[in-house]
Write a structure and sequence with these properties.
By secondary structure, this protein is α+β, with helices and mostly antiparallel strands. The protein folds into 5 domains: 4-103, Rossmann fold (3-Layer(aba) Sandwich), CATH 3.40.50; 132-201, Dna Ligase, domain 1 (2-Layer Sandwich), CATH 3.30.1490; 206-462, D-amino Acid Aminotransferase, Chain A, domain 1; 474-593, Glycoprotein, Type 4 Pilin (2-Layer Sandwich), CATH 3.30.700.30; 607-673, Beta Barrel (OB fold (Dihydrolipoamide Acetyltransferase, E2P)), CATH 2.40.50.100. It has 17 helices and 40 strands. The longest helix has 25 residues, at 474-498.
């Protein structure tokens, strides 16, 4: 077994690998950029080597620097994590040339599966179902239009070397192809150095299901069940679960056997994932097709660990050291259900715009995943596991992926795992930047999610007008009003006790007019009778000290965790996937509320405003140009993704305030319309 390994990655996955290595008695080496000098993974490792400036292209993507760090520290092997150099054949070859083990699959397998065009040919030859489409060189946009017409709309255009949702466009007609094909080529070239594109049929009611593969260097290859990853936004996975609510035992076996056959065809060993697109319109479950193979560890691997009890990172290390798998296919079972939500630095209330900045407050619902998880199948504390690589006071940088953490829950049933997600998300404290905690909580509560009727279009179909918070029941609103009244009285009592000039005879207010979600509630509190909302009793048990940011309460038998923050004379309450701005007035002053004037926000529709920090990569208009609603005006690149900004209405360009190639701040005015 190795005595020392280097982790060629950062953030939560670097922390994840270090924890398993530590449990195995293996010393670790971290490499870090300027931006990560104070990151948790650097402090956790036994040694750390600085490898360059913040941009990944100048640090984590420079293979020579990684190899030099391994040689300098005497690391015998390198774990690449995911992303960065994890699927670069040149990196694995360079390590082998230096006598350093690569904790991953053989070079020939990485090469074979890294090219989407060639991998589809190999999959077909191995007897794996493949999606109908065009596999070959596409000359130009006109050629792409002809191919799409022959396949039949809708079609999906994909960068051959793509991954992580980058370099993909769905086309419903010729106009979509003409607009999207050049963008796919640009994204493929910018992100992967390869502008080749392929086109395939878009499957109706598509579900994204993947099979976890694990093999050793002695010819043993197993499948560790499936994961459902259908809930995606812009082809980026948001929610993953294992097993899938759609997959039957017969379907699981058919999928698993085909994926093992593909892995065997390329001599695969280590952990890997075969991604499949499945037609939810086919109740037989037989319409599944090869999508791609990821020759690395997946972001969502914890849900597989939770239902199988197998530490995939440990197995990767053991396989790289030449050990045989200690279990067979018959030993792989399914224990309970696991769900993972990716907590991203993005603002769902503003169209999911990327959000970078400092974490002024970061308190996960449980401590980060620890080495003692092996006893319960890596399921964490009471069925909740947090994989993260950030810290309070740290920064989510514009240079890397916007993930803050992965929240994983396990339960005996799917509903139990989802309920634990909701409770844990309510207790997740993140301040200083936008995040998607409310959004993923809303998904966990959504009736369609609970039914298991998922497709990759779930988010677009269920939130066509964007996200504005989860629906809140009348019962929950009344309970929140009771909690708000309790908090208001506690604050009033503290103010009375702090200011001795008020005298000892004054009592805190115990009758409040509480306004939230557009409704007004009359809340009264009595030491003997309890709490009443609009005259109806609410059985409330809670404690609150002014200054608390997370309040836990039991209201009518329902457990609540509520994040709160002061807001003028009122407060903001966040729970169950919704944010409520609450107005609090003593009941005697309630008549004044009817005369309060609400400020009307200014009209900004005549400005094209940059919705996120990013680079202006294209500007399509100039002063005096006439534009129509829906017409592309500019393209802003953020987090390695191109975002097309369109005209909201017909107008004339009055002035242009930015230049192509300029770095823009959020809310920067790009141009003015009239």
């Amino acid at each position: 077994m190795f005595k020392k390994i280097l982790i060629a990655n950062r953030g939560e996955i670097a922390c994840r690998v270090i924890k398993t290595a530590r449990a195995m008695g293996i010393a670790t080496v971290a490499v870090y950029s300027d931006a990560d000098a104070r990151a948790p993974f650097v402090a956790m490792a036994d040694e750390a080597v600085h490898i360059g400036p913040s941009p990944a292209a100048q640090s984590y993507l420079i293979a020579d620097k990684i190899i030099a760090a391994a040689k300098q520290t005497g690391a015998e092997a390198v774990h690449p994590g995911y992303g960065f150099l994890s699927e670069r054949t040149s990196f694995a070859e360079a390590l082998a040339a230096e006598g350093i083990a690569f904790i991953g699959p053989p070079v020939n397998a990485i090469a074979a599966m890294g090219d989407k065009i060639e991998s589809k040919k190999l999959a077909s030859a191995a007897g794996v179902n493949v999606v109908p489409g065009f596999v070959g060189e596409i000359e130009d946009t006109d050629h792409a239009v002809r191919i799409a017409a022959e396949i039949g709309y809708p079609v999906m255009m994909k960068a051959s070397a793509g991954g992580g949702g980058k370099g993909m466009r769905l086309a419903h007609d010729e106009q979509d192809v003409r607009e999207g094909f050049p963008a796919v080529k640009r994204e493929g070239l910018a992100s992967f150095g390869d502008d080749r594109v392929f086109i395939e049929k878009f499957i109706l009611n598509p579900r994204h299901i993947e099979i976890q593969i694990l093999g050793d260097q002695h010819g043993n290859i197993l499948y560790l069940n499936e994961r459902e990853c259908s809930i995606q936004r812009r082809h980026q996975k948001v929610v993953e679960e294992a097993p899938s609510p759609f997959v039957t035992p017969k379907m699981r076996a058919a999928m698993g056997e085909q994926c093992v056959a593909l892995a065997r065809a390329v001599g695969y060993f280590s952990a890997g994932t075969v991604e499949l697109i499945v037609s939810g319109a086919d109740p037989s479950g037989e319409s599944f097709y090869f999508l791609e193979m990821n020759t690395r560890l997946q972001v969502e691997h914890p849900v597989t660990e939770a239902i199988t009890g197998i530490d995939l990172v440990e197995q990767m290390i053991r396989v790289a050291a030449g050990e045989k798998l200690a279990f067979t296919q018959a030993d792989i079972g399914i224990s309970g259900w696991a769900i993972e939500n990716r907590v991203y630095a993005e603002d769902p209330y503003r169209g999911f715009l990327p959000s970078t900045g400092r974490l002024s407050r970061y308190r996960p619902p449980v401590p980060g995943w620890s080495d003692d998880g092996a006893a319960n199948g890596r399921r964490g504390v009471a069925g909740v596991r947090v994989d993260d690589g950030v810290y309070e006071g740290g920064e989510v940088s514009m240079f890397y992926d916007p993930m803050i953490a992965k929240l994983v829950t396990w339960g005996e049933t799917r509903d139990e795992a989802a309920d634990r997600q909701i409770a844990a998300l309510d207790a997740f404290e993140i301040e200083g930047l936008g995040h998607n905690v409310d959004f993923v909580s809303a998904i966990m509560q959504h009736p369609r999610f609970r039914s298991g009727e998922l497709t990759t279009g779930f988010i677009a179909e269920e939130y066509p007008e964007g996200f504005h918070g989860a629906a809140t029941s009348p019962e929950l609103l009344a309970r929140l009003a009771a909690v708000a009244g309790f908090i208001a009285t506690a604050r009033d009592d503290r103010a009375r006790r702090v200011d001795g000039q008020l005298g000892p005879t004054l009592e805190p207010c115990d009758a409040w007019s509480v306004t939230l979600a557009g409704q007004r509630f009359a809340v009264t509190l009595d030491d003997e009778e309890g709490v009443f909302v609009d005259g109806a009793p609410v059985d409330l048990a809670m404690e609150y000290t002014p200054g608390d940011r997370l309040v836990r309460a039991e209201a009518d038998g329902e457990s609540l965790a509520i994040r709160i923050a002061p807001r003028g004379t009122g407060l903001r309450m966040i729970t169950r996937g919704a944010c409520h701005d609450v107005s609090l007035l003593p009941a005697r002053l309630a008549p004044l509320a009817a005369h309060m004037i609400e400020k009307v926000p200014p009209d900004l529709s005549r400005f094209l405003i940059c919705p996120m920090p990013g680079l202006l990569v294209a500007l399509h208009v100039k002063p005096g140009d006439r534009v129509e609603a829906g017409q592309p005006l500019a393209v802003v690149e953020a987090m390695k993704m191109e975002n097309i900004l369109r005209a909201e209405k017909s107008a004339t360009v009055k002035a242009v305030n930015a230049t192509q190639g300029e770095s823009l701040a959020v809310d920067a005015v790009i141009l003015e319309l009239e």
